[in-house]
Design brief:
The complex is a heterodimer of chains A (414) and B (256). In chain A, the strands form 4 sheets. Chain A has a 6-stranded mixed beta sheet with strand order 3-4-14-9-10-13, sandwiched between helices. A 4-stranded parallel beta sheet of chain A has the order 7-6-5-8, sandwiched between helices. A two-stranded antiparallel sheet of chain A has the order 1-2. The longest helix of chain A is centred in the first third of the chain and has 15 residues. Chain A contains 18 helices and 14 strands. In chain A, a hairpin with a 2-residue loop joins strand 1 and strand 2. With 414 residues, chain A is of the alpha/beta class. Chain B has one domain: Alpha-Beta Barrel (TIM Barrel). In chain B, 53% of the residues are buried. Helices cover 47% and strands 14% of the residues of chain B. With 256 residues, chain B is α/β, with parallel strands linked by helices. Chain B has 12 helices and 9 strands. Classes of the chains: A alpha/beta (414), B alpha/beta (256). Chains A and B meet through helix 2, helix 9 and strand 11 of A and helix 3, helix 5 and strand 6 of B.
Chain lengths: 414, 256
């Protein structure tokens, strides 16, 4: 019971915008040079109302109580922090897995979807829209909408509809309309474009953005609703090892929401070294990649100034990754900032390295991770020589691998 | 005097402004399109700079942008094409494009090129006004360029007044909450049009989004200085794949 109490008391709900310290955002939503709100005029009012509602509500006691009750009794939080004994032995260090895969709906996405839907409810919204890549955020949003009795439209690229069909079926069963998007590469970027277009035409809708991307206040808001991950890691480490911080924190970044949640309460703690995995695809030199931080230059995508993969004319280059959830040419502006100032180290992880890591975790620990999360797990091998025997390494397993079975079976057969 | 101000001084009603995507349907169609529009009495032209991810555009302009990029259009190419445009085109020209390609080209370099070839103004739909005021306004005015802002049925009175105070050309009045190229009824727009008219703004207004025929054009002419037509023209170009035929088809449709 103490844990649950801690879970509420330790929450830094009264923090200013952003994480605080040098990781605060300014009034226009900038992390250093990255962020802002580059949006069409039609959405100006919607963003103003959203900002006002979010910053008013994040400190509100009844909101907090309702949100934490759902996280506990509906999502099943706290998610375990699991000491992976055999994985630790393999890498000669102490590996702890933050098990977001055990959440209801199978990933961290539900933390944010519930936070935003409570906000939508309080704003009197009746129609929810969302974009999705792998379908995890789509399923989380459809779930939240079923729970709250709200209309739900999920935009998903046609390529992703095909490669993540189980999640499409789940969304439909939950009562959501899945709009198959046929523009561009028909993946996450294009789904986000179409969700924005729908919002322009229906500004009374509430757009639940699934990652720390887009115009201010989304990166801050999504990060805030995911911050429960690092909040729990703190007291779970304290309980298990007698100190509340690890030596290394590692997560995968597509837009960056599970990573933001994992790092949130540790950003200002310089004892903690942070390493992110981004999607290398077939390799950053091949052109078939989504390694935004490694290859990107500063530009504007989906309303935020951030790093993105573009050509010299400022046209956005279609990304590639085996993982639908990381197949995105931009990156959350906060992560662009963390990388730029050297707070995080970022490795591109190629498809084959992720697959290998997924199988390794499965065979050593009996956990089938999402292919996105497998990118984070592959960091163990990348950084093998860095870890000392008494280091504490926490990796977030952002989701479970059910949706990726087709991909895994194909690899298995090779 | 800037050609935009000149136009509105000479003409206060029934103005026809047409948008097209540079490089569509063919790469070299830019100048012929301007010539043909001018010859057919169009008062003002918005030259669309294609972008891979046009967030505020519907399918018609998305597709024309994609085709234009496939054809090899770029900002550099566009300014090359426009180098001698002022030897034959005298109507005002406005560049319309999303911020990212312009940012990569360099905002000041973009303004400088606009000035060199004789472009009179620009519309960047995803540039926030606060950024415009702090970083862009001074540069644009140094090169004599008018910056055109959009207002929509969602824009508050306070914001409209702010936009009016920072604008000196015209205001682009979006007819409805929509992306470009959406069919929309104008039946319920009278209240919005009247509301804006009663504000006594210093800038004239042109109305865009959803204007494709005689009745919608007449309607906006009644309540503003004129109409902006985009998707209806791109559709005509798409159908005919020919500049002259496309302009003819558009003008016919506007009489129907």
């Amino acid at each position: 019971m103490n844990k649950e109490k801690d879970m509420q008391n330790n929450t830094n709900f009264s923090s200013p915008s952003g994480v605080g310290g040098r990781f605060s955002i300014d009034n226009n939503g900038y992390y250093g040079e990255f962020g802002g709100a580059y949006i069409p005029e039609i959405l100006h009012g919607s963003f103003e109302r959203l900002k006002e509602a979010f910053y008013a509500i994040k400190d509100n006691a009844s909101f907090k109580a309702e949100y934490y009750d759902l996280l506990k009794n509906y999502v099943g939080r706290p998610s375990p922090l699991y000491f992976a004994k055999r994985l630790s032995a393999e890498y000669g260090t102490n590996v702890y897995l933050k098990r977001e895969d055990l959440n209801h709906t199978g990933a961290h996405k539900i933390n944010n979807a519930l936070g935003q839907i409570l906000l939508a409810k309080r704003m009197g919204k009746t129609r929810i829209i969302a974009e999705t890549g792998a379908g995890q955020h789509g399923v989380a949003t459809a779930t939240a909408c079923a729970l709250m009795g709200l209309e739900c439209i999920v935009f998903m690229g046609k390529t992703d509809v095909e490669r993540q069909f189980l999640n499409v079926q789940k969304m439909r069963m939950l009562g959501a309309t899945v709009e198959s998007v046929t523009s561009g590469n028909m993946t996450l970027k294009d789904a986000t474009n179409d969700a924005f277009r729908y919002w322009c035409s229906n500004p009374d809708s509430f757009y639940i953005v699934g990652s720390t991307v887009g115009a201010h206040p989304y990166p801050d808001m999504v990060g805030f609703f995911q911050s429960v991950i690092s909040e729990e890691i703190k007291w779970q480490l304290q309980e298990q090892i007698g100190r509340d911080y690890p030596d290394y924190l590692m997560a995968c970044v597509g837009g960056g929401s599970n990573a933001m949640g994992t790092y949130y309460h540790y950003l200002n703690d310089e004892r903690v070294k942070i390493i992110s995995a981004e999607a290398g695809g077939l390799g950053i030199e091949t052109g078939e990649t989504a390694a935004t931080i490694s290859l990107g230059t500063t530009g504007i995508i989906h309303g935020a100034k951030t790093l993105l993969i573009q050509d010299e004319d400022g046209q956005i280059i279609e990304p590639y990754s085996i993982s639908a959830g990381l197949d995105y040419p931009g990156i959350g502006p906060a992560h662009a900032f963390f990388a730029k100032i050297g707070r995080t180290k970022v490795h591109p992880i190629n498809d084959d390295e992720a697959l290998e890591a997924a199988f390794e975790l499965t065979r050593l620990e009996g956990i089938i991770p999402a292919i996105e999360s497998a990118h984070a797990l592959a960091l163990l091998k990348k950084e093998r020589d860095t870890f000392k025997p008494d280091d504490i390494v926490v990796i977030t397993v952002s989701g479970r691998g059910d949706k990726d079975m087709d991909t895994y079976v194909k690899y298995f057969k090779q | 005097m800037n050609r935009i101000n000149q136009l509105f001084q000479q003409k206060s009603e029934n103005i026809l402004s047409v948008y097209f995507t540079a490089g569509f349907p063919k790469l070299e169609d830019t100048v012929p399109t301007l010539q043909c529009l001018q010859a057919n009495g169009v008062d003002l032209v918005e030259i669309g700079v294609p972008f891979s991810d046009p967030m505020a555009d519907g399918l018609v302009i998305q597709n024309s942008s994609h085709a234009a990029l496939q054809n090899g259009m770029s900002i550099r190419k566009l300014f090359e094409q426009l180098t001698a445009v002022r030897t034959e085109i005298h109507i005002p020209l406005i560049m319309m494009g999303y911020l990212n390609p312009i940012m990569q080209f360099g905002f000041e370099a973009f303004c400088k090129e606009c000035h060199r070839v004789g472009v009179d103004g620009m519309i960047i739909p995803d540039l926030p006004m606060s950024d415009f005021l702090s970083e862009y306004k001074e540069i644009a005015s140094r090169y004599g360029l008018k910056f055109i802002f959009l207002i929509t049925p969602e824009t508050s009175e306070e914001r409209i007044r702010e936009i009016d105070s920072h604008t000196n050309g015209f205001i682009y009045m979006v007819s409805s909450a929509a992306v470009t190229g959406t069919q929309t009824s104008f039946d319920n727009k009278v209240e919005y049009f009247n509301r804006i008219n009663s504000m006594n703004l210093k800038n004239p207004r042109l109305v865009g989004f959803g204007i494709s025929n005689k009745s919608t054009r007449n309607m906006v002419n009644l309540y503003s200085s004129g109409a902006i037509i985009g998707s209806a023209f791109i559709k005509a170009l798409q159908e005919t794949q020919d500049v002259e035929k496309g302009v003819k088809l558009l003008l016919e449709n506007l009489e129907k």
